[in-house]
Specification:
Shape: globular
Radius of gyration: 23 Å
Largest sheet: 3 strands, mixed
Strand content: under 5%
CATH topology of the largest domain: Neurolysin, domain 3
Number of helices: 21
Low-confidence stretches: none
Length: 506
């Protein structure tokens, strides 16, 4: 590599580091806004976030970035770069090509809108007032359509453009096929469970559980599975989330319901699954566009794996039952590990996605997927969402939310402009089952390790196969390298059928 090229590469890495620094600062502002900032400061905070986002956006789409990319994407030059710089160049080019046509002021306007919309959504959800949120959502959908015009489409479906933001390479055709398989087999399983006389007793899960005691037990569980509190923290928010500033600072939030034991604990394990992914990314990727999960589907595979395939497994609670009874001696004094395991895996149609069971969860995602496709392709209007939401809930799950708080207002994603995100939750379930299938073959004494609380071999396996790479490998490359095949929903349904056949004695 020539001295001149070495200098240009160094300049490029410094330029990219500056963009990454803006991203970290913005992440801190968002985290603070959602966890502890006072309500009266929200509008001003939204303006600050908008201004900084616009500066970051200008850098990523600047003439200077364009000049770097033109020089470094020359085939001979690109081939001479080290792997991290090479992949960083390609990632920056993808973002540059996608966003260079969007005026910075348009992007800033969108960021301010979504920051304000998240605050309005919190109030609307609390007041059960969709009309309060509707005008913000209409503007956000209009922005999505405007951005799609800038980004371009594949000529098949506008929604594919949004899917690619969260799951590179995924299309509506692929998702429709995956969801068709999941829906048919899930409906069959739910029907069989509904007819089973062997229902678990769940009454002990709704006793009084003080928030402080729940928080202490949740922290204990997270430390046991491997969430590093020296590189993160746990706070409270309206909607649980994980945010990563860098691998040394990855934070999660939760919310507590003092009459629902399941709510906080499993959301904590879920968010810790996201966080452990980010905490284990190779430090060499810090301050590059690669220091992030490769896709939201792969990210969700980690959270759903830890939440359900570990956290709701029988071996896990065989090992944790003593600690559970020590933490909640009156609530669980007479509850056997088998009874507890069956209770936390109860299958029943529910209103809230984040509180739904493993079996019906994907049906919640399908509802949002169908609505998003309709909004983006013009067959559904925002004003009709409460009605359409409830109709789809009845069609897919057989229940109708009594309020919009329990229905169309339950998720924060649309307020943040995250269209195309929801399908990745189900993809995460699919990937998790595929990875777990391989893991059980490659890790000796897999279930015994979980029962003993020795999660180091599992964490190392995940770090080696997935976490360390950040965005160095695409989702497809990871899945194929680990499993030897593409996305395959069969493993998820096999896992669910086996597990719930035993729980409900089908």
């Amino acid at each position: 590599m020539s001295t001149n090229l070495e200098t240009r590469v160094k300049d490029f890495r410094n330029f990219v580091k500056k963009i990454a620094s803006y991203n970290q600062a913005l992440a801190v502002l968002h985290w603070d806004m959602r966890t502890q900032a006072p309500r009266k400061g929200m509008d001003a905070r939204s303006e600050v976030i908008g201004a900084l986002s616009a500066e970051q956006f200008k850098l990523a789409t600047s003439k200077e970035m364009g000049a770097f990319l033109e020089e470094l994407t020359d085939s001979a030059t690109l081939a001479s770069l080290d792997p991290i710089t090479q992949k960083s160049v390609l990632e920056c080019k993808k973002e540059y090509d996608r966003n260079k046509q969007i005026p910075a002021e348009t992007y800033q306007e969108f960021v301010v809108l979504t920051s304000q919309a998240e605050t309005v959504w919190e109030e609307a959800r609390e007041k059960n007032d969709f009309a309060m949120f509707q005008p913000y959502l209409e503007k956000i959908v209009a922005f999505q359509l405007k951005f799609i015009e800038y980004w371009g489409t594949d000529g098949k479906n506008k929604y594919n453009t949004l899917l690619d933001l969260y799951e590179p390479g995924m299309t509506v055709d692929q998702l429709d096929s995956i969801f068709a398989t999941l829906r048919e087999k899930t409906v069959e399983l739910v029907a069989a469970i509904a007819e089973s006389p062997n229902k678990p007793d769940t009454s002990f899960l709704t006793k009084y559980f003080p928030a402080g005691e729940q928080e202490a037990f949740s922290r204990f569980v997270l430390e046991r599975i491997g969430y590093d509190f020296q590189a993160g923290r746990m706070d409270r928010s309206v909607h649980p989330f994980c945010t990563s500033f860098n691998p040394g600072d990855v934070r999660i939030t939760t919310r507590f319901d003092e009459h629902d034991f399941n709510n906080a604990l499993f959301s904590c394990i879920h968010e810790a699954g996201h966080a452990m992914y980010e905490q284990n990314i190779d430090p060499a990727l810090l301050f590059t566009p690669l220091c992030d999960g490769t896709s939201m589907g792969i990210h969700e595979s980690q959270s759903r794996y830890w939440e359900n395939m570990v956290g709701r497994s029988l071996p896990f609670w065989k090992g944790m039952h003593g600690e559970l009874q020590k933490a909640f001696p009156t609530q669980f004094a007479d509850v056997s590990v088998e009874s507890f395991y069956r209770a936390i895996n109860q299958v029943t149609p529910s209103f809230i996605r984040t509180e739904s069971d493993e079996v019906t969860y994907n049906l919640h995602v399908m509802i949002r997927y169908e609505i998003e496709k309709g909004l983006i392709n013009g067959t559904i209007q925002v004003a009709d969402l409460p009605r359409i939401w409830n109709e789809k809930m009845e069609e897919y799950l057989g229940v109708v939310p009594p309020t919009d708080t329990l229905g169309v207002l339950q998720d924060v994603h649309w307020a943040g402009g995250s269209f195309g995100y929801f399908p990745t939750y189900s993809l995460g379930n699919v990937y998790a089952a595929q990875f777990a299938h391989v893991m059980q073959q490659e890790i000796n004494g897999y279930e015994e390790l979980i029962e003993k609380g020795d999660f180091a071999p599992i964490r190392e396996w995940l770090k080696e196969k997935i976490h360390q790479y950040g965005k160095m490998k695409s989702p497809r490359e990871l899945v194929e390298a680990i499993t030897g095949e593409g996305t395959n929903a069969t493993y998820l349904m096999d896992y669910l059928v086996k597990k719930y056949t035993a729980i409900y004695k089908l």
